[in-house]
Write a structure and sequence with these properties.
The chain has two domains: 4-153 and 337-355, Glycogen Phosphorylase B (Rossmann fold, 3-Layer(aba) Sandwich), CATH 3.40.50; 163-336, Rossmann fold (3-Layer(aba) Sandwich), CATH 3.40.50. By secondary structure, the protein is an alpha/beta fold. It has 17 helices and 14 strands. Strands 3-2-1-4-5-8-9 form a seven-stranded parallel β-sheet, with helices on both faces. Strands 12-11-10-13-14 form a five-stranded parallel β-sheet. A two-stranded antiparallel ribbon has the order 6-7. Helix 1 links the parallel strand 1 (4-9) and strand 2.
Length: 387
């Protein structure tokens, strides 16, 4: 039986997680064979283990560049010009929030010509989350505009679908009755909140009474890949010993985010997705030089309260809980996607159109997220690096 061959290009764990949402739309279709590859990437060291856990067929990169496929999917541009297949690209995070200010690669990450047309190659389609992204494409890379398709955001849809399950997620995490969860979130880079964790972590450990509070840390997979899991665990060992949950890079963080009573974040995608949950936000970092001024992250940086280094942390949490109003963040939430709840439908239609096949005869509804593992289960076991 001849099957269409679909190639998933997994540069990093972050890209891989985004593409798994897309690949789920091809499930149960015996007409399609999905294979994976891992091109060289600065933050790709954890990808082989990530793919091994999937049990996927992984083709070596040098072999992939000598083959032909019916469709290729990528959430990053590195090397994709060497793939012989119609290519669909999409963002790996919420909108296009990061700005590069120095060197030849200056511009908004994901909207630069080298991101959209790698090696000068025209992809089959460029998936974007919001109609407003088309204006940025028209300004930054007008050649890419005819290829753009507004498909929505899969993480937005999974989170909003799963919000009614919040109580169950909190039980799964091991939160006691009446206990509050503080989730500290960091993107990667020198100006991320992780760059200031040496000041924040002692406060999380010493200022939050354990009878009332639990804490979880969501650190971008690029931090783990860039420094190595041993080093990150070593830096955070004391936190884990005191009961703080350190969410590993391969885990699904979205159920943890939904469970939060407060989010302490920065200018990354996860903090932006936090506006969907109803949890009050504090910003530990919001470096304007790294934020796309046309993005919803810029609006969030201008609106969300900033973490004070001099006032007690519990007082600040209580303050933002009293001052927070869910409706105040509605304009920011609305800028994550202009196709709420329709990513699966739009993306599946796009893929099958490129494949030249009829879609399966069922509605591709977004599924609720699985329950997260208990916070305590993420600490390293005996023999693992923990100090």
């Amino acid at each position: 039986m001849g099957r269409k061959k679909v190639l998933a290009v997994i540069h990093t764990v972050t890209y891989g997680k985004r593409l798994l949402e897309v690949l789920s739309l091809l499930e149960a279709d015996f007409r399609i064979q999905v294979v994976f590859t891992a091109p060289p990437h600065d933050f790709g060291d954890d990808v082989p283990a990530f793919l091994a856990r999937l049990g996927s067929v992984v083709l070596p990169w040098d072999q992939v560049t000598r083959m032909a496929f019916d469709l290729a999917l990528a959430a990053g541009p590195r090397g994709v010009q060497y793939i012989d297949a119609p290519l669909i690209t999409l963002s790996h995070g919420a909108n296009y929030v990061k700005r590069v200010t120095e060197g030849a690669e200056a511009g908004v990450a994901g909207l630069r010509r080298q991101d959209l047309l790698p090696g000068g190659r025209l992809p089959a389609a460029i998936g974007v989350a919001h109609h407003a992204d088309l204006r940025e494409l028209a300004r930054d890379c007008p050649e890419a505009l005819p290829l753009a398709r507004v498909i929505g955001d899969p993480v937005h849809d999974r989170i909003t679908t799963s919000l009614p399950l919040r109580a169950g997620y909190r039980r799964a995490l091991g939160l006691a009755e009446g206990q509050k969860l503080v989730v500290a979130v960091s993107t990667w880079g020198a100006h991320s909140s992780f760059g200031r964790f040496d000041a924040l972590l002692p406060r999380l450990m010493s200022e939050l009474p354990p009878a009332r509070f639990r804490t979880a840390l969501l650190v971008h997979p690029n931090v783990w890949a860039g420094h190595g899991a041993y080093q990150v665990r070593s830096w955070l060992a004391r936190c884990e010993q005191q009961g703080i949950g350190v969410v590993p890079p391969e885990a699904d963080w979205r159920g943890v985010l939904i469970s939060a009573d407060w989010i302490i974040g920065d200018h990354g995608s996860v903090t932006l997705y936090g506006t969907l949950t109803g949890a009050p936000l504090l910003l530990a970092a919001s470096p304007r030089q790294e934020i796309n001024p046309a993005s919803p992250a810029a609006d969030l940086a201008a609106q969300a309260p900033a973490l004070s280094p001099t006032h007690p942390l519990v007082d600040q949490l209580d303050y933002v809980a009293r001052a927070y109003r869910y409706e105040d963040y509605a304009p920011i939430r609305s800028r994550i996607t202009s196709e709420p709840g329709r990513f699966n439908r739009n993306m599946r239609t796009l893929m099958y159109r490129v494949l030249g096949m009829g879609e399966p005869a069922h509605e591709p509804l977004p599924l609720p997220l699985p329950a997260p593992l208990p916070l305590a289960s993420w600490a390293p076991g005996p023999g693992e690096a923990s100090a």
